[in-house]
Specification:
The protein is α+β, with helices and mostly antiparallel strands and 162 residues long. 32% of the residues lie in helices and 14% in strands. The longest helix is centred in the last third of the chain and has 14 residues.
C-alpha cells in the first residue's frame, strides 16, 4: 500500500503496510536516519518525532496512522539554508550533546514544548523531556539547553550566543 503524508514540510509517499512502524518507514523508506531506535518499546524516546506538532514514539506508531498527517523528524527542523535550529545551537553551546544517540528525540520534544510555551520553567522542561532517556548527560545541561533555546527564540531575541 502507498502511505502518503507530509514529512518535514513536503508531501511524500512510501510503499509500506499500514501495520509497519513509522520508524521503519522513515529510516528504510525515506532514508531519514536521524530518528534512532533505542528500545523498540516506547520507553526511551530516542525515536521521538513530531506528529501534527506533538511528540510521539515512532517505534510504536503505525504507518496507517500517519496518512494525510504531518510528521517532522530531526532532519526537518534546520533552516532551508542548512542553518541549525536555535534548539540545536543551544544543545551544542551548553554541552548537552554527549554520545548524541538520544539527542534528536530530546530536541524534538523540546521543540514541541517551545512551540507551545515561549518561556517554560525548569519543571515544564523536565516534564516535556520525561519520555526521553539519556545515559550520558545527567539532564542538567539538557534542561539548560532548552531554557537557553527559549530565550533565543523569544520574540525580538538576538539569535547569537548567550
Amino acid at each position: 500500500m502507498v502511505i502518503r503524508f507530509t514529512c518535514n514540510g513536503r508531501a511524500v509517499q512510501v510503499e509500506a503496510e499500514p501495520e509497519a512502524r513509522v520508524i521503519d518507514v522513515l529510516r528504510d523508506g525515506l532514508r531519514l536516519t536521524g530518528t534512532k531506535e533505542g528500545c523498540g518499546r516506547g520507553e526511551c524516546g530516542a525515536c521521538t518525532v513530531l506528529l501534527d506538532g506533538k511528540p510521539v514514539n515512532a517505534c510504536l506508531l503505525l504507518a496507517g496512522k500517519i496518512v494525510d498527517r504531518d510528521v517532522v523528524t530531526i532532519e526537518g527542523i534546520a533552516g532551508e539554508d542548512g542553518s541549525l535550529h536555535p534548539i540545536q545551537e543551544a544543545f551544542l553551546d551548553t554541552g548537552a550533546v554527549q554520545c548524541g544517540f538520544c539527542t534528536p528525540g530530546m530536541i524534538l520534544s523540546a521543540k514541541a514544548l517551545l512551540d507551545e510555551i515561549d518561556t517554560p520553567g525548569v519543571a515544564e522542561v523536565e516534564e516535556a523531556l520525561a519520555g526521553n532517556l539519556c545515559r550520558c548527560t545527567g539532564y542538567g545541561k539538557v534542561v539548560d539547553a532548552v531554557l537557553a533555546a527559549s530565550r533565543r527564540m523569544a520574540p525580538g531575541a538576538d539569535r547569537g550566543g548567550e
